[in-house]
Amino acid sequence: MNLKKNLPSGRAKLVAVINKAGDVIDIGGVANTLNLIRSEAAKALSRWVAQGWLRRVGKGAYVPVPLEFQTTEQVVEDAWILVPALFGSSYIGGRTAAEHWDLTEQIFKDILVFTGLPVRQKTKKTGGVIFSLKHVSNEKIFGTKTVWRGRSKVAVSDLHRTIIDMLDDPSTGGGIQHVSECFNRYLRKADHDLKLLIAYADRIANGSIFKRLGYLAEGREIAQPLIEACKQRLTAGHAKLDPALECPRLITRWRLRVPDRWAKDTSP
Questions:
Q1: What number of CA atoms fall less than 13 Å from residue 156's CA on the CB side?
Q2: Separation CA 149–CA 255 (nearest Å)
Q3: CB 131 within 8 A of CB 63
């Protein structure tokens, strides 16, 4: 039996769109599937939203509403699938990627997205999920892996880029304490790559990364090559270990200001 032949015309069109589009539906997908002009496709989407079959999750982006959520607020089962549609050239990174790569056992409520789009608000809530956003220039979107979530391809920072991003901006890693814990776990992984860390940091071109990385690497025998590479790349001026914290103590050998409790010593 052909299911579509037994459905009302409007419902059959919606089924065709969902089957073709995958996890996230947009106007272009509707227009192509149903051979409509864009204005007609937009009207169809609006009608399906009004009928409760779809939910708008962003500009031009829609997801099907499961039957059990048609009278309540929908929570998207896997919010990662929304990232490409909502944030364009982007990738999931920082503390969210740290969870993905098993660098931490902490569970965060938000999903951190690095996007090439302008960021007017640092957070966006849609589909029952909070996205935290950080702008990154398109030329610095590299070091990512493609993962499949349902029928959607989503970019996530690879293991090494995740560490570098969190050192570039510790707030993306949940603060420097958590970043340090992730870094320690990274060094214990069989696929850690110190040369690739340095190569990524060179491409980001933020001198603060080398100051934080060299400081955190001290006392770890496995990371000795990292310390020398960071010393060779020290830039002028002082950086903070974590810009969100009071950092009154200066570690002169790294030109790095740290909180009192982080100060191992202040000798060159």
A1: 21
A2: 43
A3: no
DSSP secondary structure letter of residue 25: B
Q: What is the DSSP letter of 140?
A: G
Q: What pTM does this model have?
A: 0.75
Domain definitions of the chain by residue range = 3-69, 79-262
Condensed to tens digits (0 to 9), the pLDDT of residues 26-79 reads 888 888 888 888 888 888 888 778 767 787 887 788 887 764 444 444 445 678
Whole-number Å distance between alpha carbons of 8 and 6: 7
User: Model confidence at 1, in pLDDT bands (50, 70, 90)?
Assistant: very low
Across all residues in the chain, what is the average pLDDT? 86
250 burial level (CB within 10 Å; 0-12, 13-18, 19+): middle
Is residue 2 classed as helix, strand or coil in its secondary structure? coil
Among residues 187, 168, 135, which one has the least CA distance to residue 176? 168
Tokens of 86: 């909502």
End-to-end CA distance of the chain: 79
Bridge partners for 250 per DSSP: 257
Domain 3-69 has CATH 1.10.10.10: yes
Residue 26's nearest CA partner among 79, 77, 95, 81 is 81
